[in-house]
Hints:
With 83 residues, the chain is an all-alpha fold. The chain has one domain (2-82). It contains three helices and no strands. The longest helix is centred in the middle third of the chain and has 43 residues, at 29-71. It is elongated.
Amino acid sequence: MTYLWNVLIYKPIYNALVFITTDITFGNVALAIIILTILIKLILSPLSKKSIRSQVLMKKIEPELKQIKKDYPNKEEQAKKNF
């Protein structure tokens, strides 16, 4: 498990940080960390967008779910009513 962590996450991020530090910011580690953070945020933004969209959708249907839970106290009946 640690091998996967090192190969898939740790080493690429570390190598990107070293590259940015040496070639782009010319030794300024603070600026390199800021740039790397922005790049990672941009890469992960589609996932964040999907998560936010599903949270908004759940907020919209929350009153219906509360009503179903109120009307049907049994979990099996709730599951049947949801579908």
